[in-house]
Amino acid sequence: MAATHKLLSSGQVAASTAAICTAPSGKRWMVKTIILHNNRAGDESVEIYFDGTAEANRLLKVTIQENETFEWSLGHMLILLNSGGDTLQGKTDNATEVTYHIFGAEETE
Question: How far apart are CA 21 and CA 51, in angstroms?
Fold first, then answer.
């Protein structure tokens, strides 16, 4: 089946590490762009992890200034397989202050 471009996941990053993007059953998600917006009147540090929360799993650590947006366009797609239990996790300094939108493509596994 052909891949379709779409919004894969969106919400607010938690203050403790939590899932922000997991492919649904029978699907393969190919992450291409992650957009982070700091809604807070102060800087926020955001971390994104792939398949775990150890330092070796961290993909991104960025500080976003107050009321600013950070766009991370991946040079190569990051594949999330539901059958593999793959997940992106995120955390920030203060809960509900950073909004995320994750875009990419979807295929059937």
Answer: 11
